[in-house]
């Protein structure tokens, strides 16, 4: 047994609170637990993949979700694509923000879709369209529409899906965006000069911003146009949209930075 295996075996990954559902598919376990006023989704019992306030399901809980939602301030969407469902935090928040918005959601695991529907109050609305598919396959298919925002949050129990950092994936997302649209990407590190992601972003987009959430998640915002808007104004706009989502975005908006290409 390796040192890593011994360490994992010694740790207690039991979800806090009462486990109300367990399911298993080819990717592993899906665990739903309740603790106080919160419901949590975990994959294989390790990290919180999603968290919902039971008394206010539409209000985002995790800071990285709040950070992703700040892009709504720069491009109010009539249509958004969400890659990776999890417990549906983005879906609930965006639907509450604008019930008339078209939301297309792509999730690889049918069991995750089933759990989200049963335990995480997904909106039952004809304008919320769920696709059970691999994100790469969905993006490779002929485009039927363009989106003002694309949110990519592709994670397994243990790691980010590496396709999110590839040039092919980013360029495919870019082709699905409206002219002023934004890709919003949940990544695990700031794109450093010399990395594949840095060069891939440089090839696909003209303007890239990022924000490091308190959890360490790095949210990357990318658009195809040259954005001349001062960073100070973008931060103010992001903070101002917070009350619409029922949360404070001021402390997160101040962390937004530009990624400069050499």
Automatic annotation (TrEMBL):
The keyword Disulfide bond does not apply. This is Spermidine synthase. Keywords: Polyamine biosynthesis. Coiled coil: none annotated. GO terms for biological process: polyamine biosynthetic process. It comes from the Bacteria. It holds the Pfam family Spermine_synth. InterPro entries: SAM-dependent_MTases_sf.
């Amino acid at each position: 047994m390796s040192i890593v295996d011994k360490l994992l075996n010694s740790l207690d990954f039991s979800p806090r609170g009462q486990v109300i559902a367990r399911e298993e598919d080819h990717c592993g376990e899906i665990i739903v637990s309740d603790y106080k006023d919160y419901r949590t989704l975990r994959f294989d019992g390790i990290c919180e993949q999603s968290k919902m306030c039971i008394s206010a399901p539409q209000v985002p809980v995790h800071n990285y979700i709040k950070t992703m939602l700040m892009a709504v301030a720069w491009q109010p969407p009539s249509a958004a694509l969400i890659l990776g469902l999890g417990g549906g935090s983005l879906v609930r928040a965006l639907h509450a923000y604008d019930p008339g918005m078209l939301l297309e959601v792509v999730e690889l695991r049918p069991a995750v879709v089933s759990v989200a529907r049963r335990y995480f109050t997904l909106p039952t609305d004809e304008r919320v369209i769920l696709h059970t598919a691999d994100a790469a396959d969905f993006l490779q298919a002929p485009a039927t529409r363009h989106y003002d925002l694309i949110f990519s949050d592709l994670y397994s129990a243990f790691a980010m899906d590496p396709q999110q950092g590839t040039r092919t994936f980013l360029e495919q997302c870019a082709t699905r965006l409206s002219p002023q649209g934004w890709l919003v990407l949940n990544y695990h590190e700031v794109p450093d000069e010399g990395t594949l992601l840095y060069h891939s972003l440089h090839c696909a987009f003209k303007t890239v911003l990022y924000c490091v959430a308190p959890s360490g998640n790095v949210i990357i915002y990318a658009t195809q146009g040259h954005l001349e808007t001062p960073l100070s104004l973008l931060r103010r706009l992001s903070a101002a949209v917070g009350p619409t989502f029922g949360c404070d975005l001021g402390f997160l908006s101040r962390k937004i930075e530009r990624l400069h290409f050499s």
